[in-house]
## 1
Amino acid sequence: MNRKKTVLVVVAHADDMEFLAAGTVARFVRECGYDVYEYILTDNSKGSYRLAPEELIAVSAREAIEAGRVLGLKEVRLEGYPDAYLNETNPNVLRGRIMSMIREVKADIVMSWDPFAPYEDHPDHRVTGMAAYEAASFSGNPLFHPEHAHAPYPATEAYWFAKVPTNADLFVDISSTIDTKLEALLKHDCQMLLTIDGLVQEAKSVGAEIHALANLGPDGHRALIDAAIRSFCAETGEEAGMPYAEQFRYQKLGMLDKVLGTAYVTPDFPM
Ligand SMILES: [Zn+2]
């Protein structure tokens, strides 16, 4: 039962989606013909060892929009909550913001951080996942946030991603989109430099000299990230017999399949 679906990706930071789900997003856009929206909750103002927060906010927003263009997203929306302080936002307000966007774009699929993944260290990821879970679970209920301008709309599926995906049950073959994923990820240049600067600092603290890092040319960090992410996706794929993969905990929301059978809500990738 194939119908056109709309996808909403809810993340804390500008590059979260590109690291863990952009290959799948590119397949949704290209192969399924779905409209995909990205909703970035924070202003990304903690993501650099080099730039001041104000500059970083502007640069990371620009990079997120460029990455969205590479992936063919309908829109990249930036909410602008202070980075690393999402847990100070009223949870019901945050849930309401996400629910409002689900209703506005009529999202059938919600993708976000898995609220139940273990060992997640970033508070923004934990908060984002739980708020997205609550929003996706009750977006069809007219008594939840009746102040919204848009009519209730029940999301029917969720793809939850995680840094430590111990609960994942769906592998998506991203061999056809790995190059696009990398192209989108590498648009986040300031975040890629953050990754490298973090590694250099870690290495210093243990007295290690990492030649690959010490001798990086102006574009060297890009080649390094490219190779690291390709090998990460290849490792994920190995578990499922795929050249490159991303993995998710897939969830059907609501009760439709329990009442009418499973044919009405079907995942777009084999489980
Ligand atoms: Zn993040």
## 2
Amino acid sequence: MRTKATFLKSAFAWLTIFFVLVAAPLVLALIGHQQESRGFWIEFGVGLGFVGLAMMGLQFLLTARYSKIGFPFGMDELLQFHGQAGYFAWGFIMTHFFVLLLSNTDFLEFLDPRVNFLRALALSSVIIAVTALIVLTLWREKFGLIYEWWRLSHGLLALFVVLVGTVHIMQVGFYVSELWQQVTWVGFSVIAMGLLVHNRVFRPWQMSRKPYEVISVKKEVDEIWSIVLEAKGHQGFTFRAGQFAWVTLGDTPFKLQQHPFTISSSAEKKSRIRFTIKELGDFTSEISSIKPGSGAFVEGPYGNFTLSESTATHNIFITGGIGITPAMSILNTLRDRRDTRKMTLIYGSPNREQTPFFEELKVLSAELNLQVIHVFEDAEENPEGEKGFITEKILKKYTPGNFASCEYFICGPPAMMNAVEPVISGWGVPVHKVHSERFNIV
Ligand SMILES: Cc1cc2nc3c(=O)[nH]c(=O)nc-3n(C[C@H](O)[C@H](O)[C@H](O)COP(=O)(O)OP(=O)(O)OC[C@H]3O[C@@H](n4cnc5c(N)ncnc54)[C@H](O)[C@@H]3O)c2cc1C
């Protein structure tokens, strides 16, 4: 059961483990170390290098898609944390570099090809690689780099930094004189590499053994399509309503194109799953041309945007646009389970014509203890709900006075999320009762 205490306890435990692992190389370096100190600034600079490299290595764990890693946070929160940690890792590695050069110019020889060509090449490439990781993430679109190539280069550049960083530590040797210390550092790099291989090779291989077939592709509204997949020769997979999966379309799962989409169908139907997809870029714009009978692969399920642990008697969904998909899965599941809990859905969309699932929601509200409020942005009048954007006034109107007794599920475009989240937390609703999911992870 998700209570405030269990949420805070797991959040605290998770962060503690993360920071202990980040600091571990410092402890490792000092165990049994007998050489004389080279002065504060040099030791400080070296320490930053250790911490930066540990953070880089841990990035592979954060993005390894293990559902236990990151609990109690959602995958999107974990990836945002990964992004922030990446900036810190870059900061630590660059400061390591500058602090050492400024505290003793002899260190310049590390970059001098006349002294050691390979070492100079490797270390200057690391500085370029670690900076490229940040620059390409921040300005990917400006560089015209498509997401899939960015993602591949991101993994490879990070691996390069970790491997060269480890070799650098070995070569300097000041803090890794013992064999067990060397083995630990090599083990650390091997694990980072192993996680990447696991993600890119082992997981697709696992998926290849459980293929899916596209059963139908249906237009919901302009630019939004539902695609139904059926498990071929297996039972499908068990998921909790509201979770998402990584989808690859075509005959092989060994592809760069793998995208996360939330399952919009009932968790009671394991072998036939529906994804509802809005056209956005190169991949999603091709969904309409997918032919029934073609192949698909599904990796998952992932995410914590689920009702499973909610004990609230009233759950409130606040969604916008394509952010309706997890709510659709939850509502369809509750209908299949004959669950009579009280639900309110406040759903923002441009207008009636551009609202996916308008009819399906009507049917669901007749079958469930569900009130659906449509908030139409463009409509002059909206007899079926509200018009404009989802504001605090609208939220208050449809939420019972005892705000903290409800549980909230927020999913929609960034502008909506940024407007709604502070309102809900401003009502004093405890953090474990507010579930947010963002579809833009980078
Ligand atoms: C947890 C989660 C659940 C989602 N659920 C849905 C859903 O139910 N319906 C829906 O329409 N969309 C959903 N999305 C968004 C969907 O993944 C992107 O719209 C889609 O991947 C865009 O791909 P593209 O090539 O068409 O667009 P692009 O123009 O290439 O990408 C646009 C943006 O989408 C994101 N993106 C693109 N490719 C990937 C990728 N391979 N992995 C991760 N992010 C990527 C990036 O933020 C990128 O900047 C979800 C995203 C996440 C993170």
